[in-house]
């Protein structure tokens, strides 16, 4: 991917790793997105792919709409972020990007 096409990623890649760690600690309260089970991560990704549309995401996940709402509520209890709210969704998405960047930086250190 071209550097000029990274968008928010370009800003994240300019952050010091220590600041990224502080941000992740604030968002996930000492946890990591790696701690989430595969089902939760798949739910989050599908929800974002469908622009926060609960009905469409649940249809593509082949689950009832209420099941998706239950999963999002469960995630909200773990992170204090309601992904159905735009600001919280943006915060969560940026946190995932920061985690990805930190993993990349860890591989570059060796």
- Class per helix and strand makeup: mainly alpha
Could you say which overall geometry the principal axes of the C-alpha atoms support?
globular
Give the helix tally: 6
CATH class of the domain at 36-110: Mainly Alpha
Overall pLDDT confidence: 88
Contiguous low-pLDDT stretches (5 residues minimum) are none
CATH topology of the domain at 36-110: Arc Repressor Mutant, subunit A
Task: State the share of residues found in helices, binned by percent.
Answer: 55-70%
Strand content: under 5%
What is the fold's blueprint, element by element?
Layout: H1 8-12, H2 17-28, H3 38-49, H4 54-61, H5 65-79, H6 86-108
Helix pairs in contact: 2-6, 3-4, 4-5
Describe the structure.
This protein is mostly helical. It has a domain at 36-110: PucR C-terminal helix-turn-helix domain (Arc Repressor Mutant, subunit A, Orthogonal Bundle). The chain contains 6 helices and no strands. α2 (17-28) packs across α6 and α3 packs across α4 (54-61). The two termini are 23 Å apart.
